[in-house]
Each structure stands twice: as C-alpha cells, then as structure tokens.
Amino acid sequence: MAKKLWARLLMEYPAQVVMAAAEQCVKKQKFLPNVHDVIEECETSAADLLGMPDAHSAYVEACRAPSPKAEYNWTHPAVYYAGRASDWFLLANEPEQIAFPVFERNYQLLMAKVKNGESIEIDLPKALPEETTVPLEKKQQLERLKAMRAELNLD
Questions:
Q1: Could you tell me the mean pLDDT of each successive run of 10 residues in the chain, 155 residues long?
Q2: H or E stretch at 46
Q3: Which of 70, 82, 83, 137 is the most exposed place for a label (fewest CB within 10 A)?
C-alpha cells in the first residue's frame, strides 16, 4: 500500500526528476526520506532540470530588468510572465515584503505549467514596415497646399 501511495503522489513528476530528487534526499539526510521530502526535492529538481531559477532569484531578476522588458535576455520566459502578471509598477515601487508574495504565487503557477510540458514564449514586437516615409520639406509642403487649394478653388 505504501508503494501505491508513493507512486500516486509522485506520478505527476517525470521519472528522471523523481530519481534525481530521491538521490538528493538520500545524500542530505541520515535516514531514508519520506514522501514529503521527496516531493519537496522534486519541486526543486524539476525547476533545475528545466533551467528555471528559484522564486527569489527570479523576483530579483524581474525587479532589476531594464525596460523594454520583453527585449531583456531572461533566464527563463516564466520570469518575464510572472513579472508581467505581478505588474511591473508593483515590483518597482513596493517593498519586497509586499511584492514578493504576489510575484512568487504567479511564478509558482507558471512553474507548474512548464513542468506539465506547456510551452511559454515571450511575445516578440512587430517588425517595422518595409517602407518608411520621410516628411516633405516646408517649401514642398507649401507647394502641395497651394496645388490642393487650386483644385478645390479655395484661393
């Protein structure tokens, strides 16, 4: 029954994550780990295997990132999306004790999506048009205005 319980509780994690987590737990503790210890280590191991920073490092990165935010070279797209969901203004203007819990919740939700295999990518800004127009010089503008008035018989 214990094996079934462990299998049911750990089935949401890939096998490589469970193995890495169990190995880390055994190395850190004097006794064999319980399922709770393995689940906690799975959370950490999954983030490491996916290249995601821990929540506080991600928070610091989001707070220090320059504008425009979408063009910054993020360690992981989830950091950008968590910052955007938390509101950049909040992160920049509120103390950590207020802003971090908001960011951490959003980041944890995104981590769960990434762990489940969802792909998240940063939206790229639209490219500039192929043709750009240059404004006419003042003399040319006046000539065009005269021509338009003549056409409308406003002179």
A1: 86 80 86 86 72 89 92 90 92 93 91 77 67 84 91 75
A2: helix 35-49
A3: 137
